[in-house]
Amino acid sequence: MCAKIDRMLSQAYELCEDGNFLEALKLYDSILKKEPQNITVLLDKGVTLQNLGRLKQSIKYYDKVIYLDPENIQALINKGASLHSSKKYYDAIRCYDLALKIDKKSPMALAYKGLSLGELGNLKDALKHFKKALSLEKDYDLAYISKDTVTELLKSIQKQKSKTP
Q1: Where are the alpha helices (DSSP H) in the chain?
Q2: pLDDT digits over 10-66, tens only?
Q3: Residues 6 or more apart from 159 whose CB is under 8 A from it?
Q4: What digits encode the pLDDT tens for the residues 105-115?
């Protein structure tokens, strides 16, 4: 049974890589009928739903993973990303904070938290999170680009303030 499920998972992964998300979902559903608590499949199905823009559904799958494995950092970060995409920035930050309680050196949780902080207008804290993520992973493109963007925004705001009498 395990070998068959591994093949199905590989096939679903390939389908997702090719952008064929709906076919991948069918495979995930087949596996979940046999193994409803398979964390890998639940997580991958959540990611696939997220890629389809079905954010509420993806969050339900991340919640299932978190229920089964409360310290699953990937599920917490992915749930945060879905919440962020739904413009629920405070809820997203709570997910990233939970992930950071488990691993305070998670560059992804730090950078994603920075993105949500930035959306809330908290640019200085966002910058701190991007810098910390980069201190842990120097080549992290998302953190690097976001750090530069926030730095330019802060400079622009400062320039505007200095022009105002």
Answers
A1: 2-17, 21-34, 39-51, 55-68, 73-85, 89-102, 107-119, 123-136, 141-163
A2: 999 999 999 999 999 999 999 999 999 999 999 999 999 999 999 999 999 999 999
A3: none
A4: 999 999 999 99
**What is the pTM (predicted TM-score) of this model?**
0.91
Query: How large is the angle between the packed helices 2-17 and 21-34, nearest 10 degrees?
Result: 160
Q: Which fold has domain 1-99?
A: 1.25.40
Q: Which of 132, 71, 63, 136 is nearest to 101 (CA)?
A: 71
**Separation between Cα atoms, residue 26 and residue 39, nearest integer Å:** 17
Residue linked to tokens 């330019």: 152
CATH of 105-165, one of 1.10.12, 1.10.3210, 1.25.40, 3.40.1350: 1.25.40
Distance, CA of 88 to CA of 94 (rounded, Å): 10
